Amino acid sequence: MRRANVAKLTAVIAAAALAGCSSAPLPGGEGGDGYQVAIEFADVTDLVPYSTVKVDDVTVGQVEEITVSEKWTAKVKIRVNDDVELPRNAIAALRQTSLLGEKFVELAPPTESKPAGSLSEGDSIPLSRTDKGAEVEEVLGAVALVLQGGGLEQLRTINTELSDMMQGREGEIKDSLGELDTFMTSLDDQREDIVTALEALEKLSGDLADQKETIGEALDAIAPGVTTLAKQKGMITEAITALGELGEVGSDVIEQSGDETVAILQDLQPVLENLVKAGDHFPQGLELAGSYPFPPNVSETIEDDFVNLYITLDGSLENVLGNTLGEKPIKQADPDNPESTPGGTEGGGIDPITGGIDDLLGGGITGDEDEDEEEAP
Predict the structure, then answer these.
(1) What keywords are annotated for this sequence in UniProt (predicted)?
(2) On the CB side of 295, how many CA atoms lie within 13 Å of its CA?
(3) What residues does each domain of the chain span?
(4) CB-based contacts of 27: which residues, under 8 Å, 6+ apart?
(5) What's the whole-model pTM score?
(6) pLDDT tens-digit readout, 210-219
(7) How does 244-269 read in b/e, with b if 16+ C-beta sit within 10 Å?
């Protein structure tokens, strides 16, 4: 009797436990009310309400409603669990559990841009961020096209040709692959330079596009000139031919008169050297020669009936006596030398201007002119 009561109690506890398990949420299932998101698909094929919504193969919600939008696209409303965090720019795609399994909606962060914001109640995912995926029918149709359209035979031909091409050339192909690897490595090392060149080319293309009208006007302006040159093609050809003949004649003249030309140039060398030495004096001399007998600035001194002049008068005794008595003045008798005689250009007389100071200075004033005259034959 006691054993029967224990068995009945055990059965009651097991039934209660099983009933409690039925009310517990499954892992990855729906939790709470969640938030609703609208998704726009071009085609949902056989997706139906209450289909699952997954993130990384984990169920996080379900499809609530499928309608047709005003743009004749499918508008799918889903509900996602509150504890699921997705960026506002998330993407959606239709996937299939297996080859013949059911459809479900897959949510994921964006792959071509950085995640931004947070997906919340009332948000929508536009058509540009959705994907339908390949259907089984499309895959089987492509396979059938390859099998029935002679695709296998074409693949066989390609394989045969490749085998014939590579036969006996394994070493060359290996070397080619090595060179290709070196080339690709070099390109990878110069990646930044290539990008910079492409950016510069893009900027140049943009500048040319901005100046499209100016370039068009320039081409339109060139067209008449090109037309004129085309009409004068014969004359231009004759001129070029004549220029060639002139060059031949000039070459003959230079070859025949080469020595004479060199001699003339050598004779001109001293003249040219003197012209170079003259420097700025040569053009000044030409300017003065053109105004002979009056200097160029004489017009600035004439005012009405009189002339303005500036005179510099040097009244030093040496210059006055030198200009009066000549370059070498008359000498006087030297009192210290009884044999000296005054006057003349010979004898031991002293200079009346410098006196005996010149002897004390060792000829520093007048130099050694007397000694040079005595030594002269």
Answers:
(1) Signal
(2) 6
(3) 35-133, 168-228, 232-311, 328-371
(4) none
(5) 0.35
(6) 998 898 888 8
(7) eeeeeeeeeeeeeeeeeeeeeeeeee
